[in-house]
Amino acid sequence: MPPELVEGRVRFRYAAADPSVTAVSLDCDRAVAGPRAFAADDGGWALDLPVPALDRVEYRFSLERADGDELVLDPDNPCTVPTAFGDRSVLELPGYEAPRWLEAPAVEGTTTSMALAGETADEVPVDVWAPADLAPDEPAPLLLVHDGPEYDRLAAITRFSGAHVAAGLLPPHRVALTHPVLRDAWYSGSPQYLRTVADAGLERLGERFALERPVVVLGASLGGLTALLLGLLAAPRVGGVVAQSGSFFQVRHDDSESGFPWFGRISRSVQAVLDMRHAEHPLVVGMTCGALEENAANNRDMASALTRAGHDVRYREVADLHNYTAWRDALDPTLTDVLRTVWSSGGDAR
């Protein structure tokens, strides 16, 4: 049966249909407190966990056999979700609701593919979504999204835009979905990547499409770090940033990440932002992060530092973890508020 709540605990079960299975454990984010090893139970396996302070939990079962381990979905739970690392079973706890805009009417869109060339050895591919009735020469605001294809496939970002345009909550706008060709190298404070997008990239987008009002940049994890660094570099052409679970690595908080090849460059870039005392071109900054994430401490530090420097910061913690569904669910109201604030302020993107 699917996981069930039993006296303040979540009970997971795995039926022992395969006698070669010698042990079962729960594979999920380490922020979920409690044991991982199942105990033999009535011909199968069972595990009780304290109910986590979360709206939902993504998980798999790890099956141990003599010939090796296997990660599988929960065969008794029909609720699954695609992730950047494959499908996961999902436990949705009482009170969880998916965003209403997922099922709301949305304008139809069209997509144009192009590439941005600059200082990076590889061009940056971009898919630009727009409402079907928005001509290329018709001025409209732009939302630029790092990890664009993943944000669209796993967090429905163009569906978000289409639904909010249809409801009259946002003006017709374009969404530039950038591809992470060399993600770790590009999204780790690479000066070449940042200058490619901030300079030649925005110029190329402005040549291909009529842009108005400042650009807003969105990203998550390393993409959230990159969104903020790009916004700081390209202001005032960029007027707003939304960073979700940003990887704002600091030595004092993130020693577990120190083996990442680009940790030093990231931590130096982050420290430079934390040390800023004055923003020449203040940004509107939206930030979301799971309250139980490892990233929560460095996100709180970054929100405080940006506020001290004079940026308009809206920081919100959510009851989920480091995954695209969490980022999708947190788009509204944070992204909506940033877009409306920036795009109502006037100015242009040139």
Layout of helices and strands:
Elements: E1 4-6, E2 9-15, E3 21-28, E4 39-41, E5 44-50, E6 56-65, E7 68-72, E8 80-81, E9 88-92, E10 109-116, E11 124-131, E12 142-145, H1 148-155, H2 157-166, E13 174-178, H3 183-186, H4 191-208, E14 215-220, H5 222-234, E15 238-244, H6 263-274, E16 284-290, H7 296-308, E17 312-318, H8 324-329, H9 331-343
Helix pairs in contact: 4-5
Keywords:
Rossmann fold, 17 strands, 9 helices, eight-stranded mixed sheet, single chain, five-stranded antiparallel sheet, alpha/beta, Immunoglobulin-like, 350 residues
Summarize the structure.
This is Enterochelin esterase family protein. The protein has 350 residues and is α/β, with parallel strands linked by helices.
Would you kindly provide a written description of the structure presented here, covering whatever features stand out?
- This protein has 350 residues and is α/β, with parallel strands linked by helices.
- It folds into 2 domains: 4-92, Immunoglobulins (Immunoglobulin-like, Sandwich); 100-343, Alpha/Beta hydrolase fold, catalytic domain (Rossmann fold, 3-Layer(aba) Sandwich), CATH 3.40.50.
- The protein is built from 9 helices and 17 strands.
- The chain has helices spanning 148-155, 157-166, 183-186, 191-208, 222-234, 263-274, 296-308, 324-329, 331-343, and strands at residues 4-6, 9-15, 21-28, 39-41, 44-50, 56-65, 68-72, 80-81, 88-92, 109-116, 124-131, 142-145, 174-178, 215-220, 238-244, 284-290, 312-318.
- Helix 4 (191-208) crosses helix 5 (222-234).
- The radius of gyration is 22 Å and the shape is globular.
- The model has no long low-confidence stretch (mean pLDDT 95).
